[in-house]
Amino acid sequence: MAGPRAGKKSMANGSGGQNTSSKQSLTEAFDKDLYDGNNGVEKYAGYNMSIAANEDEEMQDAGELNGRRLVGQYTASKDMLNEFAHGDTAEDDILQSREQQAQIASRETGYQRRRFDRRLSPDRADPFTKDGANGGVAYKDVMKERELEREEVRIKRLLEDREKKGNEVLDHQPTLKDGATVTDGNKTPPMEKKRKRRRWGDEEPTIKKEEEEEKEEEKKVVPVAKKKSRWASSPVPEVKADEPAAAAEPVRSRWDTTALPSSGATPAPATNGARPAAPMTFAFGTDISARNAPLSDEQLDMMLPSVGYKILEPPPGYEPVRRPVGMPALPTGYQGYLVPEADNSLAMMGKQVSTEIPGVGDLQFFKDEDIKYFGKLTDGANENEMTVEELKERKIMRLLLKVKNGTPPMRKTALRQLTDNARQFGPGPLFNQLLPLLMERTLEDQERHLLVKVIDRVLYKLDDLVRPYVHKILVVIEPLLIDQDYYARVEGREIISNLSKAAGLAHMISTMRPDLDHQDEYVRNTTARAFAVVASALGIPALLPFLRAVCRSKKSPNARHTGVKIVQQIPILMGCAILPHLKGLVECIGENLNDEQPKVRMVTALALAALAEAASPYGIESFDDILNPLWTGARRQRGKALASFLKAVGYVIPLMDEEYSNYYTSQIMEIVIREFQSPDEDMKKVVLKVVSQCAGTAGVTPVYLKDSVLPEFFKHFWVRRIALDKRNYRQVVDTTVDLAQKAGVAEIVGRIVNNMKDENEAYRKMTVETIDKVISTLGAHDVDQRLEEQLIDGILVAFQDQTIEDPIVIDGFATIVNALGERTKTYLPQIVATVLARLNNKSATVRQQAADLISRITFVMQKCDEDPQLIKLAQALYEYLGEEYPEVLGSILGALRAIVTVVGLTAMQPPIKDLLPRLTPILRNRHEKVQENTIDLVGRIADRGADYVNPREWMRICFELLDMLKAHKKGIRRAANNTFGYIAKAIGPQDVLATLLGNLRVQERQSRVCTAVAIGIVAETCAPFTVLPAVMNEYRVPELNVQNGILKALSFMFEYIGDMAKDYVYAITPLLEDALIDRDQVHRQTAASVVKHVALGCVGLDCEDAMIHLLNLLWPNLFETSPHVIDRIVEAIEGIRNAVGTPLVMNYVWAGLFHPARKVRHPYWRIYNDAYVQSADAMVPVYPQFEEENLRRHELEIFI
Amino acid sequence: MADKLRAQQQLEALQARYIGIGSADTTKHEWTSNIARDSLSSYIGHPPMLQYMSIGLGQPREKTRVQLLERMIQPVGPPPKVSWDIRRA
């Protein structure tokens, strides 16, 4: 990383550019300076350096002739092409670089990226301070400013509209005349009919995802700037000169989003909205201004004859408007081309960016963008000459850098320092540095997390000092609330919740109120979410009066919309915790159901849906007042609004009791069924949801469903097209399953069973999945003979015709077969034949699936008395044990195991004595699936039929098993250990033990630990006395690893044998004595854990003398400081305390509780505390006697 | 450093649940107060013990119980003056 990088020059100073990263680009030439000359002249100047990303849309098709194609061309719609480009179904762009993917901004949707449009607002006044306003902006000013912004947007929109309609500059139409009535001082932009339709009518409607709905508004706000093509981007000079304000902004290409160097004391990142004059690039050949430029004197000399003519002096006062030839019109304020940051001294640093910053230490990384914020630290200024403020600033900067880029231990200490000194630093200097960092475009998840954590900690310390900065913090934190990442959302909520607790409700309201009718929809949306968090933090009742006022605002429909949205977000956030306030919340928004604005009506319906969903199954009485408007409203709405109303209806119905739900369902079902045929995706989604909700209520009868719902439902939703639609597929399957709950298995399955033989594979899979779900929940009792045949026939076709092997079909197959049970008998020969044929297939996945299927259906086959068939399968599988694909081999072993389980070891063919020798070499396979299945099979044989195999074979397996103790998967290691136990039981512990004890000498720790466990298990299964002599003998080996292993094995053994330990206490004590006075601390540690298990094993079994002896040996170890050692020692003492009683051990404790040395007091109090927590009552009789009169416990001296 | 902090946090969490536990900084006054309170609540919590004491004191059990309960307020007298408490500094 360190050191200058050639070729990085041009990139290094473009800090803040979207595509810059701190790593060397692979596509960039290292020797660029060689070939470029690097003399300030761009080699490719004048060429088109970027290819616009959306150019294809504008490009004319080559085959077009006179605007008419000769060949008909069909292509997918743009919606379809972009389906997986963003949103939930987005797929990663594999062409993006790693570090770019890590950046938060790179995976944000356009809507989320609008956070960059917001700027950190100036400090707000805190009216709660002593002097009232402390220099910040007051509430009144903010409201005025918002008003101004709205007015500005309104004017801009009017101008755009006019421009779109044609040049009407000369017409001078009064702007407020066309239709809109602005009489009551309403400052909101007049809604035009046309616009309205566009927004809520035919555009892609969304119900659930607010974000998408918002996107449309975004389109509307900057329609001109977005749609302009690159070709039109160089503005025509005349227009520019006349009305520069109205000129459309050029489309930004990726090249000109470079952030500009900030000049202020606190660096503020360039934001989208406040884009200062960014250097413009002009594509080659697109610049036509040269042709329109005035002719130069030389050109005129050449064109006109020089004799006989005279050049006249211009009249006084005439100033020609001249521009250099060949230069396009420049935006106002343009000061000539500057290489960004070329003259900035910090940029020089960019080249030698290292992770070493003076006074900070070695960082994990240091990105180019960080220079912008932390460059000051590297300027080498003399700190002795600085003021306290400057020093403070640098201190904070250093700490923040450590937190953001440092190693974990650095971060920890820096964070602690920031937290501890937060009040000394003051909120101003802290937030002025912290918040701009969070606005950085190239921020990554980890950095954001850390910075947010800093805010959280600092907030806690600053408490009410934070007030003036509340809005700034909200601007930065609110975007977290709509992040895709769950944890980011949780973090955001926590911060806002803490913020509202620190600042108080009144201040939060006065800060956020102006944003409620902000002209930007993004701001309103995020503010609504933030308000919901405030409600959950400070309680709904506190916020309810304010919400009521906002939702009834006469002045602004936007405020009403946002108010209702807050009410919608509250249940989403708090769930059933809204129940006590449900009535208040519903009343608050009830009237908005009949609002004059369609979008307010819609969001109200959605809010009601959210409330009902959270309240379910309680609270129907709170909804009483809105039932009527909701149902009548649903009849009147169309399109998107109808979808939202239906959604609310769907969520309210399950709350009702039987008769009501029956009545209300019948009222609405007509509309729902009508909307089955809607082509609109979201309407489909809502309708499906409503149907499953209605079907779930008691009031809806099966007959009604069968007669009026099912025919339409299957007609519109069980079509092939749905199976290919990723989004609706799941919903249709779920709804069908829900309908089956009411209508019965036979009814539903009978309708779709034939689809399993459909030619479309996706459709077949969808059918199999549905049948699987229906039958697994409801069983196959009402499936008759005919349907049974169809089912088996269909599933066999679906199974055989798979082109992409999918677990769905196998699952479906297994479910059907298992549900039919003994009724499958007639079909088994056919199934077995199919499976056998497929076991021999050349495709590995087909073989694997066949084997998997066997393991799923053996149980049923056994129930059908088809043992001969099972044997046939087992023999076939035995033949395939030579399989080379590990995945397939694993499945084959699994199938064999399943067969062995049901057939039994005696009846098994091939006989076990042939099968096991084949398994021994397979044990050596390193593949996890193979290992797991073999060990399981071997363990089963060892457990139930060890005598079918001769002991020599078992010993061979023992050796192989030792390797398995190294496996990564815990299940495999555990199975191997258990198998040791079974084998030891079968062939006696001696040989197995010898093998295991030998294995204690190996280097690998995991292997030794597992061996110790295995010894423990062997000791447990074969009784300890058969094992203990050999184990204790092995302890004499003067090798640390072996001795430790023995101790560990003893520890496991005593853990497993429990109170059998009593018989071995005196036998083991000398060994423990020796171990507890060993110089090696790990030795003592392990010995302590043996003591613990022994002691716990013989609680109340009369072994106190041995225990006290061990306690005496243990006690001096109390001063160990290594955490593992001291923990084991303390646990051992606790164990002994339980065995010998608290009072005895307390005698040891009193001595050190008030020892002069803290080092002594500390562990003694630890022991005291443990005793106190576990058995405080037992300590009462043994508390020491005190001399002082007031400390004596006279009651104890009472004697009768 | 980190371990110490963690141990400190654990101790605080434990102390929130069991008020009687102590640390290397516990003073004699705190400890003896806890001892006295634990003893008193133990007498009350074991009815036979309470009965025994009441017989010994020659008064009803309930009266003894209330007496014991009342003694739990500053059972070993008020806390010592701060100047005495050097260990804390």
Can you give a write-up of this model?
The complex is a heterodimer of chains A (1200) and B (89). With 1200 residues, chain A is mostly helical. Among the domains of chain A are: 68 residues, no CATH class; 147 residues, Leucine-rich Repeat Variant; 124 residues, no CATH class. Chain A is built from 56 helices and 4 strands. In chain A, strand 3 and strand 4 form a beta hairpin. The longest helix of chain A has 27 residues. Chain A is globular and about 125 Å long. The two termini of chain B are 21 Å apart. In chain B, helix 3 packs across helix 4. In chain B, 15% of the residues are buried. Chain B has a domain of 47 residues. By secondary structure, chain B is mainly α. The longest helix of chain B is centred in the middle third of the chain and has 18 residues. Chain B contains 4 helices and no strands. The interface between A and B is medium-sized, with 26 and 29 residues.
What is the rounded Rg of chain A? 40 Å
Indicate the radius of gyration of chain B in whole angstroms. Answer: 17 Å
Would you give the CATH topology of the domain at 911-1057 in chain A?
Answer: Leucine-rich Repeat Variant
Question: Any low-confidence stretches of chain A, pLDDT <50, length ≥5?
Answer: 1-21, 33-42, 50-65, 178-283, 324-329, 341-353
Cα distance spanning the termini of chain B: 21 Å
**Tally of helical segments of chain A:** 56
Physical arrangement of strands within the biggest beta sheet of chain A? 1-2
CATH architecture assignment of the domain at 911-1057 in chain A: Alpha Horseshoe
Assign the structural class of chain B, choosing from mainly alpha, mainly beta, alpha/beta, alpha+beta, or little secondary structure.
mainly alpha
Work out the number of β strands of chain B. Answer: 0
Helix content of chain A: 55-70%
How many DSSP-defined strands of chain A? 4
